[in-house]
Task: structure prediction
Amino acid sequence: MKKPKFIILSPSKNEPSGGMVVLYHLKRKLEDLNFDVKMQHWRDNTKITSDLDTTVVIYPEIINHNPTNAKHVVRWILNRPGVIGGNPSNYGENDLIYLFNEYFGYNKPNNGILRLIDYKWDLWVEGNTEKDIEYAHYIGKSVKYYPHNGFNIHKKNSLDLSFRLHNYNEAAKILKRVKYFYSYDLMTFWSIAASMCGATSVVIPKEKESYHYISKEDFYSYRPSCRYSVAYGEDEIERVNSEKHLLLNSLKEIEEKGNQQVEKLIRDCTEKINKE
Result:
């Protein structure tokens, strides 16, 4: 039986965004399982000229068409197609498609969930850092969803971290100083990181009439990592703080489920290259 080789196409050559972090995390997971994996920048536009029958190219959702001319393609839906880029009408009909999250609205046939999270455990240990930033907030990708006058729910003395959380080591230093962290972006990893750093972490729900409204029940269903770490609105703060001791075991279980989903990806790809 032929063994797949993997090429992961990335939109950048470093790890500044959540999408990039999980792409590199998938690379490391596959390497740990003794697979040949390469990370390739999408602008390099290198066509595959060898090992066509065994090479699987993994594209994040923002990459249209098939720029590497791969015979075997995986699409990983890391965000709602079209928010940053990508159009499902440009995907191939035989592509394998995995969703990081059901929330991202991909309602066509797919191959299931691939939720792989790099929690970066060592960075977020709370420690003894002084909590000298009482309030901080983050807008993130919600700039795509809210009108510009909608970012006014946070406290007046809140520190805007929207453009300061790029380097993970620096982000950890800042978040460890925060008492209350509010996020308008319901899908950002920073909400979880802030909680792991010891902050009370809150996401600000969207209005019910908003196109991108998500209920409390769906939020915790789509984002199980947040159940014991992030409050959906201020009404959930007391509940989350009282159950925060359950967070570590919960994240470990989610991490193990992600490992099982990687194994399914490998099985699906192995079956595909040996069938065609």
About this structure: The chain has two domains: 5-116+254-275, 121-232. Residues 247-275 form the longest helix (29 residues).
